[in-house]
Amino acid sequence: QNDKEAKVVTEPYQKIESSQKEISFQPGSDVSIDLLYTTTDTNNQLGGLQLNAHYNSSLLTPIGEKGITENIFLPTFGSAILDDTNDLDQDSSTDKMIQLIWADPQKAEWPGFDLPASLGTLSFTTPSKEALVDSVTGQAIPLNINYTRSEGVDGYDFLGTSTSLVQQTFN
To answer: 112-130 pLDDT, tens per residue?
Structure first.
């Protein structure tokens, strides 16, 4: 049940998605999410992107210092792990976000590569099988990584999809 109003996105827009909408994992193992960036008009000469990847920190642990392996040809201007205090992704199950900033404000030539461009790979350690079960309902707890944008780019809206992490089950 989703009573949120769907946000209308107008073209042109910047878009972030993972190479797979759904990624399966074995509980307790590491999971990697390849981030892809594009625009609806394939303009690869913009001022940058301030991306937030929202996650549930009680179940997912970023690997390494900030959970991102950057594309060496598209290094970030900065990155940080922040509290999702304003619930930017409108998902109460996510409480932290990895913020990634790519900036080229002077020349506005970002990313400068053919689109879609690979921005890097997010990596998390997943919880135990037991931690993924809601103790009240006995149902599997959904794990999503949601993408939002903090800073806008003139004339461009933003479409952030979600990546679902799905526990592998063996019968």
So the answer is: 999 999 999 999 999 999 9
Give residue 49's pLDDT.
95
96, 57 Cβ separation under 8 angstroms:
yes
Helix (H) or strand (E) holding 50: strand 48-55
Strands 22-25 and 162-167: parallel
**163 token code pair:** 């990546």
Q: What percent of the chain has pLDDT over 70?
A: 95
pLDDT at residue 171 above 80?
no
User: Residue 135: left if φ>0, alpha if ψ -120 to 50, beta else—which one?
Assistant: alpha
Which positions ≥6 away from 117 have C-beta within 8 Å?
36, 37, 38, 44, 71, 74, 111
Range 9-26 average pLDDT? 94
Give residue 54's identity as a one-letter amino acid code: H
Q: What does the chain come to in residues?
A: 171
156, 48 in Cβ contact below 8 A? no
Q: Is the peptide bond before 111 cis (omega within 30 degrees of 0)?
A: yes
